[in-house]
Amino acid sequence: MTTTGRFTIPSEENYAKETGELAELWGADAVRNSDGTHLDADVLALGKKIYSAYFPTRAHNEWISLHMDETPQVYLLTNRILAESTSVDIALMESFYEEQLSVNYDVDPHRYWEVIDRTTGEVVAPELWSVNVEDGTVHVDEVTPMHEYTVSFLAYIIWDPVEMYNHLTNDWGDKEHEIPFDIYHEKTREFVFETFHQWLKDNPQTDVVRFTTFFYQFTLLFDNKHREKVVDWFGSACTVSPKALDDFEAQYGYRLRPEDFIDMGSYNSAWRIPRKPQRDWNDFLTTFVRANVKRLVQDTHAHGKEAMMFLGDQWIGTEPYKKGFEELELDAVVGSVGDGTTLRMIADIPGVRYTEGRFLPYFFPDTFYEGNDPSIEGLDNWRKARRAILRSPISRMGYGGYLSLANKFPKFVDTVTHIADEFRTLHEYTNGAAAEPALTVALVNCWGAQRSWMAFTVAHALPNKQTHSYYGILEALSGMRVNVRFISFEDILEHGIDEDIDVLINGGPVDTAFSGGDVWENPRLVEIIRAWVRAGGAFVGVGEPSSVNRQGRFFQLADVLGVDEERFHTLSVDKYFPQTTPRSEHFITRDVPEDYEIDFGEPILNTYPIHEGVTVLSARGGEVQLVANEYGAGRGVYISGLPYCALNARLLERVLFYASHNEEKYDAWSSTNPECEVAHYPEAKLFCVINNTDRAQATDVRRADGTVESFELEPSAMVWRHE
């Protein structure tokens, strides 16, 4: 087996000897620096491929401190202030961190700011309010008592949010705060390209420029107690400037309001249904960002180096899943791997020569401290990612942070040795091919392909009580034996449903981009999906699919799913629940023990069967949780929620095979134990069985010819067999 290659190791100052030793142990063929570290000459002399992190829009305070009006800007929303008389004073920065953000008093506030009566939604006329720069407030006259008022105002971002996060996490003390800058301004843009060109000349030893990342930070704002206040990994709030707003107006023929960015306090979260201003701004921003990314890439290539993009930090505007990304001619994309979903988010990006995953834990003191065992997180992270790698392999792996911290934990060092060897073995056996899929599944939402593997997310790979019931769909699919596609409602309306799609999934809470909101008021959308299912298609709804109040229905595809949600308007109409089908008697639930309580996540209240021909597979407390429904020649299945766990992944897998009438395909290359999964590689005539737990597991695997092999698997094991 190959014992070197496909691995990037971090290093730091005065750590060359140990870097060489660990590089040998882990089989590293590349070395990188992390934020706040530099590579010594002795490290450069190790003979490894050199990755150099490059930050195009920070780490040059000597420039930006002389041009502080060219830092990035963001629209901020003040606290809601109750008017108790006919005037009100609103403090601008009361809940924001003043070391990160500074009010932009340099522009005309009456042109670029907005005061809104949040009780009525009306914009307050500019002549009725004034700004007091001395005390940082806005005074508003002629207000209505007992109404709430806010100010939407522009602020400079004066401390790079990621460097700030790292600073606070690592207690960097008196280290100078790095000020970000905005290349939308011509002088700064010229400085960025001249500086980078000189850097390329000064760093001939660099093989790969690891852009970390480019120009605009995802939304990451802190409060006055230094806590995260607004975090949206897809947010473009931190991309505005008066110049950009004016240019947008000239190009698109209408002016964006501050409210188009504030969005009543949601800051245009990816959960919000995207409207024309948001989509237009995304197009405007992406066009600008990509044009300048391409310049950096071309300069990189002209100096004989590879260009790698980090999918994180200042990634906003690059839009790796939006049409045209391949035109940037980037060599690679690297990203942080938090689980199977984020692994697929990186691995499935089109238009690059290779992809790389930065695995967890990051070598920072919040994990590597006395008494903790980082190997537990390391193996957990690997198990989550591994099942996804089998379905869509990344080319390389690595870690980041302070190598000196990791080296203090011998058990962790051994764990990484094992993971790296297993990763290389996987590639050697499969030659980088993906395992054979059995079905093609499409998730439909407002974003479509642009947010592939990005649905149901708030912050990158971090759990959230309100999202886990939906995010579990992605995590289950990330390592499942299916092709996964992301399509939009517009795709269906314009092109119909592709012939190769076996199952269509729509899920999410009401009035979100993921369930669809008022898109379901379009009869044409409902017609297309109904006709497709009746002709033999499969539709799976999770949570509040196709939900909008219309014509006495809440789920507009209730007839397909066999389920609707009571919205308290038809309480006088009785509902009758059919007898729940025993688990052992139905294909979907056959693997679930009768005494096991399935985790359906956050409850969807008051769901009920719309007729007594529905097959109820799970119901609790007056709500259905799992239902199957025959619909013409096709089938619909409703699931109230699906947090990720092995049994839920198995449940969803059986739902997909059942709904698409592919039950006869299910047993081939499947595991009898839900904690174990099978990946089949017909070209290599191999299959592997993985144990997704830290405990020993036993399972039987059925081959396509019907023969069965039994496996006793060690914790976290991956075992290969010939067909």
UniProtKB/TrEMBL annotation:
Origin: domain of life: Bacteria
Domain Lacto-N-biose phosphorylase C-terminal residue range list: 669-720
Domain Lacto-N-biose phosphorylase central: 441-664
InterPro entries: Class_I_gatase-like (IPR029062), Glyco_hydro_b (IPR013780), Ig-like_fold (IPR013783), Lact_bio_phlase-like_N (IPR035080), Lacto-N-biose_phosphorylase (IPR012711), LBP_C (IPR035356), LBP_M (IPR035363)
GO terms, molecular function: 1,4-alpha-oligoglucan phosphorylase activity
Protein name as annotated: Lacto N-biose phorylase
Occurrences of domain Lacto-N-biose phosphorylase-like N-terminal TIM barrel (ranges): 5-434
Gene Ontology process terms (BP): carbohydrate metabolic process
Matching Pfam families: Lact_bio_phlase, LBP_C, LBP_M
CDD domains: GAT_1
